[in-house]
Design a protein that fits this description.
InterPro entries: HTH_LacI, LacI/GalR-like_sensor, Lambda_DNA-bd_dom_sf, Peripla_BP_I. By secondary structure, the protein is an alpha/beta fold. It folds into 3 domains: about 45 residues, 434 Repressor (Amino-terminal Domain) (Orthogonal Bundle), CATH 1.10.260; about 120 residues, Rossmann fold (3-Layer(aba) Sandwich); about 130 residues, Rossmann fold (3-Layer(aba) Sandwich), CATH 3.40.50.2300. It has 13 helices and 12 strands. It has a 6-stranded parallel sheet with strand order 2-1-3-4-5-11, with helices on one face. Strands 7-6-8-9-10-12 form a 6-stranded mixed sheet, sandwiched between helices. Helix 2 crosses helix 3 and helix 10 packs across helix 11. The chain is elongated and about 90 Å long. The termini are far apart.
Amino acid sequence: MADVARLAGVSIATVSRALRDVPGVSQPTRDRVRDIARELSYVISPEASALSRGHTGRVAVVVPRLEAWFYGAMLGAMAPVLRAADLDMLVYETEGEQERTRFLRELPARRKADAVLLTALPLSQTEVARLDLMGAHVVVAGGTVRDFPHVAVDDLAAGRTAVRHLLDLGHRRVAMLRTNDTDGAVWSADVQRTEAWRTTLRDAGLDASDELLASESYGVDAGARGLARLLALPEPPTAVFAYSDELAFSAIAHARRVGLRVPEDLSVIGVDGHPLGETLGTTTVDQHVTDQGRLAAELVVGLLAGGTVADVEVPATLVVRDTTAPPAH
Protein backbone atom coordinates (compact mmCIF):
# COMPACT_ATOMS: atom_id res chain seq x y z
CA MET A 1 0.00 0.00 0.00
CA ALA A 2 2.93 2.33 0.71
CA ASP A 3 4.31 1.61 -2.79
CA VAL A 4 0.96 2.47 -4.37
CA ALA A 5 0.71 5.67 -2.33
CA ARG A 6 4.25 6.74 -3.32
CA LEU A 7 3.69 6.18 -7.04
CA ALA A 8 0.27 7.86 -6.97
CA GLY A 9 1.56 10.81 -4.93
CA VAL A 10 -1.12 10.39 -2.25
CA SER A 11 -1.29 9.23 1.38
CA ILE A 12 -1.71 5.61 2.46
CA ALA A 13 -5.09 6.56 3.89
CA THR A 14 -6.19 7.81 0.46
CA VAL A 15 -5.08 4.54 -1.14
CA SER A 16 -7.09 2.61 1.43
CA ARG A 17 -10.22 4.67 0.79
CA ALA A 18 -9.81 4.42 -2.98
CA LEU A 19 -9.39 0.65 -3.01
CA ARG A 20 -12.26 0.10 -0.57
CA ASP A 21 -14.52 2.41 -2.60
CA VAL A 22 -15.42 4.66 0.34
CA PRO A 23 -16.19 8.38 0.06
CA GLY A 24 -13.57 11.11 0.37
CA VAL A 25 -11.53 10.47 -2.81
CA SER A 26 -12.07 12.18 -6.16
CA GLN A 27 -12.80 9.95 -9.14
CA PRO A 28 -9.56 10.84 -11.00
CA THR A 29 -7.51 10.01 -7.90
CA ARG A 30 -9.47 6.81 -7.34
CA ASP A 31 -8.85 5.73 -10.96
CA ARG A 32 -5.12 6.56 -10.74
CA VAL A 33 -4.73 4.57 -7.50
CA ARG A 34 -6.54 1.57 -8.96
CA ASP A 35 -4.48 1.65 -12.16
CA ILE A 36 -1.24 1.65 -10.17
CA ALA A 37 -2.52 -1.10 -7.88
CA ARG A 38 -3.31 -3.24 -10.92
CA GLU A 39 0.16 -2.64 -12.38
CA LEU A 40 1.72 -3.77 -9.09
CA SER A 41 -0.71 -6.76 -8.79
CA TYR A 42 -1.71 -5.39 -5.41
CA VAL A 43 -4.78 -6.78 -3.66
CA ILE A 44 -6.22 -5.94 -0.26
CA SER A 45 -5.38 -8.58 2.32
CA PRO A 46 -8.67 -10.32 3.20
CA GLU A 47 -7.35 -11.37 6.59
CA ALA A 48 -6.22 -7.87 7.49
CA SER A 49 -9.55 -6.46 6.35
CA ALA A 50 -11.39 -9.12 8.33
CA LEU A 51 -9.49 -8.19 11.48
CA SER A 52 -10.49 -4.57 11.08
CA ARG A 53 -14.14 -5.54 10.53
CA GLY A 54 -14.22 -8.01 13.41
CA HIS A 55 -15.19 -11.05 11.31
CA THR A 56 -13.43 -13.56 9.07
CA GLY A 57 -15.40 -13.46 5.83
CA ARG A 58 -15.45 -17.27 5.79
CA VAL A 59 -18.12 -19.97 6.01
CA ALA A 60 -17.25 -23.49 7.15
CA VAL A 61 -19.14 -26.25 5.32
CA VAL A 62 -19.06 -29.61 7.12
CA VAL A 63 -19.82 -32.82 5.19
CA PRO A 64 -19.53 -36.51 6.14
CA ARG A 65 -17.81 -37.40 2.87
CA LEU A 66 -16.80 -35.72 -0.36
CA GLU A 67 -17.03 -38.58 -2.88
CA ALA A 68 -20.83 -38.93 -2.84
CA TRP A 69 -22.75 -37.01 -5.51
CA PHE A 70 -25.16 -35.49 -2.98
CA TYR A 71 -22.42 -33.60 -1.12
CA GLY A 72 -20.63 -32.51 -4.27
CA ALA A 73 -23.90 -31.14 -5.64
CA MET A 74 -24.55 -29.30 -2.38
CA LEU A 75 -21.09 -27.73 -2.35
CA GLY A 76 -21.36 -26.79 -6.01
CA ALA A 77 -24.63 -24.95 -5.36
CA MET A 78 -23.37 -23.19 -2.22
CA ALA A 79 -20.11 -21.91 -3.70
CA PRO A 80 -21.41 -19.25 -6.16
CA VAL A 81 -23.83 -17.81 -3.58
CA LEU A 82 -21.08 -17.42 -0.99
CA ARG A 83 -18.64 -16.10 -3.57
CA ALA A 84 -21.12 -13.44 -4.71
CA ALA A 85 -21.33 -12.28 -1.08
CA ASP A 86 -17.50 -12.09 -0.85
CA LEU A 87 -17.42 -15.06 1.51
CA ASP A 88 -14.79 -17.78 1.31
CA MET A 89 -15.82 -21.40 1.79
CA LEU A 90 -13.84 -23.74 4.06
CA VAL A 91 -14.72 -27.42 3.61
CA TYR A 92 -14.35 -29.92 6.47
CA GLU A 93 -14.81 -33.63 5.82
CA THR A 94 -15.78 -35.53 8.96
CA GLU A 95 -16.22 -39.12 7.81
CA GLY A 96 -17.08 -41.48 10.64
CA GLU A 97 -17.60 -41.03 14.33
CA GLN A 98 -13.93 -40.47 15.16
CA GLU A 99 -13.45 -37.60 12.71
CA ARG A 100 -16.79 -36.06 13.62
CA THR A 101 -16.01 -36.22 17.34
CA ARG A 102 -12.57 -34.68 16.82
CA PHE A 103 -14.04 -31.83 14.79
CA LEU A 104 -16.64 -31.04 17.44
CA ARG A 105 -14.10 -31.38 20.26
CA GLU A 106 -11.48 -29.12 18.69
CA LEU A 107 -14.00 -26.75 17.01
CA PRO A 108 -11.50 -25.66 14.32
CA ALA A 109 -14.14 -23.48 12.65
CA ARG A 110 -14.78 -21.41 15.77
CA ARG A 111 -12.01 -18.87 15.09
CA LYS A 112 -11.82 -19.42 11.34
CA ALA A 113 -15.41 -18.86 10.20
CA ASP A 114 -18.40 -16.63 10.83
CA ALA A 115 -20.91 -19.39 10.10
CA VAL A 116 -21.00 -23.18 9.94
CA LEU A 117 -23.10 -25.03 7.35
CA LEU A 118 -23.82 -28.62 8.39
CA THR A 119 -24.60 -30.62 5.26
CA ALA A 120 -26.55 -33.83 5.93
CA LEU A 121 -24.31 -34.55 8.92
CA PRO A 122 -25.38 -37.31 11.34
CA LEU A 123 -24.89 -36.29 14.98
CA SER A 124 -25.31 -37.84 18.42
CA GLN A 125 -27.09 -35.88 21.14
CA THR A 126 -23.74 -35.10 22.79
CA GLU A 127 -22.40 -33.78 19.50
CA VAL A 128 -25.49 -31.65 18.94
CA ALA A 129 -24.94 -30.03 22.35
CA ARG A 130 -21.41 -29.02 21.35
CA LEU A 131 -22.74 -27.01 18.42
CA ASP A 132 -23.66 -24.30 20.95
CA LEU A 133 -19.93 -23.79 21.53
CA MET A 134 -19.24 -22.92 17.90
CA GLY A 135 -19.47 -19.20 18.54
CA ALA A 136 -20.84 -18.81 15.01
CA HIS A 137 -24.12 -19.04 13.16
CA VAL A 138 -25.11 -22.65 12.47
CA VAL A 139 -27.27 -23.53 9.45
CA VAL A 140 -28.31 -27.04 8.40
CA ALA A 141 -28.63 -28.12 4.76
CA GLY A 142 -30.39 -31.29 3.66
CA GLY A 143 -32.00 -32.12 7.01
CA THR A 144 -32.79 -30.77 10.46
CA VAL A 145 -30.84 -30.50 13.70
CA ARG A 146 -32.66 -29.24 16.79
CA ASP A 147 -33.85 -25.65 16.28
CA PHE A 148 -31.03 -24.45 14.01
CA PRO A 149 -32.15 -22.72 10.79
CA HIS A 150 -32.40 -25.31 8.03
CA VAL A 151 -33.25 -26.07 4.43
CA ALA A 152 -34.66 -29.54 3.79
CA VAL A 153 -37.35 -31.59 2.14
CA ASP A 154 -40.04 -33.30 4.17
CA ASP A 155 -38.29 -36.69 4.21
CA LEU A 156 -41.31 -38.40 5.75
CA ALA A 157 -43.46 -37.19 2.86
CA ALA A 158 -40.76 -38.07 0.30
CA GLY A 159 -40.52 -41.61 1.63
CA ARG A 160 -44.28 -42.03 1.67
CA THR A 161 -44.50 -40.77 -1.90
CA ALA A 162 -41.96 -43.37 -3.04
CA VAL A 163 -43.57 -46.30 -1.21
CA ARG A 164 -47.10 -45.23 -2.13
CA HIS A 165 -46.06 -45.16 -5.81
CA LEU A 166 -45.01 -48.82 -5.55
CA LEU A 167 -48.21 -49.78 -3.74
CA ASP A 168 -50.35 -47.97 -6.30
CA LEU A 169 -48.68 -50.08 -8.99
CA GLY A 170 -49.88 -53.20 -7.18
CA HIS A 171 -46.77 -54.29 -5.26
CA ARG A 172 -47.39 -55.92 -1.90
CA ARG A 173 -43.89 -57.13 -1.01
CA VAL A 174 -41.86 -53.91 -0.78
CA ALA A 175 -38.35 -53.78 0.72
CA MET A 176 -36.07 -50.86 1.61
CA LEU A 177 -32.36 -50.33 1.03
CA ARG A 178 -30.35 -47.98 3.25
CA THR A 179 -26.81 -47.55 4.57
CA ASN A 180 -25.86 -47.86 8.23
CA ASP A 181 -22.92 -45.44 8.14
CA THR A 182 -24.11 -43.06 10.87
CA ASP A 183 -22.11 -44.77 13.66
CA GLY A 184 -24.94 -44.64 16.16
CA ALA A 185 -25.61 -40.98 15.43
CA VAL A 186 -28.97 -39.71 14.24
CA TRP A 187 -29.67 -38.16 10.87
CA SER A 188 -33.23 -36.95 10.42
CA ALA A 189 -33.51 -37.90 6.73
CA ASP A 190 -32.56 -41.53 7.41
CA VAL A 191 -34.91 -41.81 10.37
CA GLN A 192 -37.85 -40.25 8.55
CA ARG A 193 -37.49 -42.15 5.27
CA THR A 194 -37.22 -45.44 7.14
CA GLU A 195 -40.25 -44.53 9.24
CA ALA A 196 -42.14 -43.61 6.07
CA TRP A 197 -41.43 -47.05 4.61
CA ARG A 198 -42.64 -48.83 7.75
CA THR A 199 -45.76 -46.78 8.38
CA THR A 200 -46.91 -46.68 4.75
CA LEU A 201 -46.71 -50.46 4.49
CA ARG A 202 -48.35 -51.03 7.88
CA ASP A 203 -51.14 -48.58 7.09
CA ALA A 204 -51.81 -50.70 4.00
CA GLY A 205 -51.85 -53.86 6.12
CA LEU A 206 -48.58 -55.14 4.60
CA ASP A 207 -45.39 -56.65 6.00
CA ALA A 208 -42.75 -54.16 7.18
CA SER A 209 -40.59 -56.60 9.12
CA ASP A 210 -36.85 -56.15 9.60
CA GLU A 211 -36.03 -58.87 7.07
CA LEU A 212 -37.24 -56.49 4.36
CA LEU A 213 -34.99 -53.64 5.58
CA ALA A 214 -31.49 -54.14 4.15
CA SER A 215 -28.86 -51.93 5.83
CA GLU A 216 -25.34 -52.00 4.39
CA SER A 217 -22.11 -50.13 5.05
CA TYR A 218 -21.53 -47.23 2.67
CA GLY A 219 -19.91 -47.99 -0.69
CA VAL A 220 -20.62 -47.88 -4.41
CA ASP A 221 -21.82 -51.49 -4.22
CA ALA A 222 -23.99 -51.05 -1.11
CA GLY A 223 -27.19 -51.31 -3.13
CA ALA A 224 -26.01 -54.50 -4.79
CA ARG A 225 -25.03 -56.06 -1.48
CA GLY A 226 -28.34 -55.15 0.09
CA LEU A 227 -30.38 -56.44 -2.83
CA ALA A 228 -28.45 -59.73 -2.83
CA ARG A 229 -29.60 -60.27 0.77
CA LEU A 230 -33.19 -59.42 -0.11
CA LEU A 231 -33.24 -61.76 -3.10
CA ALA A 232 -32.02 -64.60 -0.87
CA LEU A 233 -35.19 -64.41 1.27
CA PRO A 234 -37.67 -67.29 0.99
CA GLU A 235 -40.12 -64.74 -0.42
CA PRO A 236 -38.11 -61.99 -2.18
CA PRO A 237 -39.63 -58.53 -2.69
CA THR A 238 -41.14 -57.48 -5.99
CA ALA A 239 -40.20 -53.83 -5.38
CA VAL A 240 -37.48 -51.90 -3.57
CA PHE A 241 -37.42 -48.39 -2.13
CA ALA A 242 -33.81 -47.17 -2.03
CA TYR A 243 -32.80 -44.41 0.38
CA SER A 244 -30.79 -42.73 -2.40
CA ASP A 245 -30.49 -42.85 -6.17
CA GLU A 246 -26.94 -44.18 -5.91
CA LEU A 247 -28.23 -47.16 -3.91
CA ALA A 248 -30.92 -47.63 -6.56
CA PHE A 249 -28.36 -47.60 -9.41
CA SER A 250 -26.29 -50.27 -7.70
CA ALA A 251 -29.34 -52.42 -6.93
CA ILE A 252 -30.60 -52.22 -10.51
CA ALA A 253 -27.18 -53.24 -11.85
CA HIS A 254 -27.13 -56.28 -9.53
CA ALA A 255 -30.69 -57.28 -10.43
CA ARG A 256 -29.85 -57.32 -14.13
CA ARG A 257 -26.57 -59.12 -13.47
CA VAL A 258 -28.44 -62.01 -11.85
CA GLY A 259 -30.96 -62.22 -14.67
CA LEU A 260 -33.86 -60.18 -13.31
CA ARG A 261 -35.71 -57.77 -15.55
CA VAL A 262 -36.24 -54.25 -14.23
CA PRO A 263 -39.08 -53.34 -13.91
CA GLU A 264 -40.85 -56.52 -15.06
CA ASP A 265 -39.41 -58.74 -12.29
CA LEU A 266 -38.36 -56.04 -9.83
CA SER A 267 -39.32 -52.38 -9.50
CA VAL A 268 -36.80 -49.94 -7.98
CA ILE A 269 -37.29 -46.32 -6.88
CA GLY A 270 -34.74 -44.01 -5.29
CA VAL A 271 -34.62 -40.54 -3.75
CA ASP A 272 -32.44 -37.62 -4.85
CA GLY A 273 -32.86 -36.48 -8.44
CA HIS A 274 -29.34 -37.57 -9.41
CA PRO A 275 -28.63 -36.37 -12.98
CA LEU A 276 -27.65 -39.90 -14.05
CA GLY A 277 -31.17 -41.00 -13.19
CA GLU A 278 -32.54 -39.40 -16.35
CA THR A 279 -29.93 -41.10 -18.52
CA LEU A 280 -30.50 -44.48 -16.83
CA GLY A 281 -34.27 -44.11 -16.73
CA THR A 282 -34.49 -44.47 -12.94
CA THR A 283 -37.70 -43.59 -11.13
CA THR A 284 -36.95 -41.22 -8.25
CA VAL A 285 -38.33 -38.73 -5.77
CA ASP A 286 -36.40 -35.59 -6.70
CA GLN A 287 -35.41 -33.65 -3.58
CA HIS A 288 -33.87 -30.81 -5.62
CA VAL A 289 -30.44 -31.01 -4.01
CA THR A 290 -28.91 -28.01 -5.76
CA ASP A 291 -31.88 -25.85 -4.72
CA GLN A 292 -31.34 -26.95 -1.11
CA GLY A 293 -27.64 -26.04 -1.28
CA ARG A 294 -28.31 -22.64 -2.85
CA LEU A 295 -31.05 -21.77 -0.36
CA ALA A 296 -28.93 -22.86 2.62
CA ALA A 297 -26.10 -20.59 1.45
CA GLU A 298 -28.61 -17.75 1.08
CA LEU A 299 -29.70 -18.32 4.69
CA VAL A 300 -26.08 -17.94 5.79
CA VAL A 301 -25.63 -14.75 3.79
CA GLY A 302 -28.81 -13.34 5.32
CA LEU A 303 -27.72 -14.17 8.87
CA LEU A 304 -24.29 -12.62 8.37
CA ALA A 305 -25.94 -9.48 7.00
CA GLY A 306 -27.81 -9.16 10.29
CA GLY A 307 -31.17 -10.29 8.99
CA THR A 308 -33.69 -12.77 10.35
CA VAL A 309 -34.25 -16.01 8.48
CA ALA A 310 -36.95 -18.65 8.35
CA ASP A 311 -36.62 -22.39 7.78
CA VAL A 312 -37.15 -23.47 4.18
CA GLU A 313 -38.93 -26.64 3.08
CA VAL A 314 -38.23 -27.65 -0.52
CA PRO A 315 -41.02 -29.76 -2.05
CA ALA A 316 -39.99 -33.22 -3.31
CA THR A 317 -41.26 -34.36 -6.70
CA LEU A 318 -42.08 -37.88 -7.92
CA VAL A 319 -40.41 -38.53 -11.28
CA VAL A 320 -41.69 -41.76 -12.86
CA ARG A 321 -39.35 -43.35 -15.39
CA ASP A 322 -38.50 -46.87 -16.56
CA THR A 323 -37.60 -48.79 -13.38
CA THR A 324 -41.06 -49.09 -11.83
CA ALA A 325 -44.09 -50.95 -13.18
CA PRO A 326 -46.86 -53.25 -11.96
CA PRO A 327 -45.64 -56.67 -10.82
CA ALA A 328 -45.52 -59.25 -13.61
CA HIS A 329 -47.73 -61.69 -11.69
